[in-house]
User: Fold this.
Amino acid sequence: MNCKEIKHLITDYHDNNLDQTTKILVEEHIENCLTCTQIYQEFIHLIDIINQVQEELPDKDLELNFENILAKEKLAFKTSKSTVLKPKSKVLRSMLQVAATILLMISCYLLGNYKDNVSKAKEIATLKQEKTEMQTIATLSLMENESASKRLQAVSYAKAITKPDSKILKVLIIKMNNDKYTNVRLAAANALAKFAENTKVRQALVKALETEENANMQIELIQILVDIEEKRAIPTMKKLLQNTETPTYVKDQINSELKQII
Amino acid sequence: MENLTDEELMGLIVGGNLDMMRHLFQRYNIKIYNFCIQMTKDKDLSKDITQEVFYKVLKHRETYRQNKFSSWIYAIARNLCKDYYKISNKTKRLDDKGLKYTSEINETRSEPLANIRQLNIALNQLNDSDRELIVMGKYQGLKYHEIAEITNSTLGAVKTKMHRAMHKLKDYYFLKTKHHEL
Ligand SMILES: [Zn+2]
Assistant:
């Protein structure tokens, strides 16, 4: 071994990171070479100094502030849990709607304006459609809100729409690809997964994985594409496996998921 | 709870037991705080960033995936420090504030630590990515594979860069202006 090679190995030698044979070779060289002995001794000194650097202790208010944050988050979590119970109020609302409809029917009947069943059904359908339109408009405007949590909310509204129109799907795709916050992007991807029977949505999901650089998003997209059994994503996944930049845990995910769709 | 791994604690937190976050705070707050100090040379800022790190861990707990918790939390801290650099590079670079903070930090210590001061000066001469590698590997004691995960790099690349960075640091420390080609 020459001095140049030793130089490459000397930090690993110091950290005891070498296999036995290499270790002995380095050791022998250092013992017989003045230059490398000096370099080695400098490393010992340098690392000794680094180890003398004492940890700084933060003021107590770091912990106090943390407790504050934790308390707030716990409160927010509780409230969000109680909104999970919303179906109750939804049932109540639809009951009220039914009651209102009945009341309307009775009054119409009393007024002698009772319509036949067909037109009544039409009326309800129109009402339903109007409701979806309202939902769509509200969702679209909220989607552009500056606050990330509002945008997250919008994504969850969009997901709740049974038959979203192309505008909603388009904006979800944009959010999945471009939102500043990974959380919003993840949520948008998950919402789109629900509408994967739409060919444009499928295409967008396939394309998203091709260009995605964020590991969290990659993992989510892989999961979704496997769930919807999208075979067109296979080449991209294989490419990711070959890319040295892809984090190991993403590769692990691909390896375990890929089996399911091949 | 002391026996649970970071990842197990995180699992409980994601499951809704937010109080478990206290244990992770105890395990990591000093480490993260010191990491930020080494990265930013600013104690007050480091306190703010550390706080922000734990806020993010709590807020984004749902996005935590099964990889190592320590890599995840360091990656968050690293990104926040980097954001700070982006801002500060525009305004502070020229007045060499970094070095001033360094000596300030040392003077609050009791021992006469000329060596450490010299080490800090050497460390400050490194570029951001070399310095961050040394801080993670040698100050924080993170393993190569953890650093690779945090910096989204490969094990081989981290090893090579770390060797180069250590040689540079050594040469700066021993005031060798010219360092040999690696
Ligand atoms: Zn030699």
In short: The interface with chain B takes residues 7-8, 11-12, 39, 42-43, 46-47, 49-50, 52-59, 61-63, 65-66, 69-70, 73-74, 77, 81, 182-183, 186, 215-216, 219, 244-245, 247-249 of chain A (CB under 8 Å). Chain A has a mean pLDDT of 82. Chain A is about 80% helix and 0% strand.
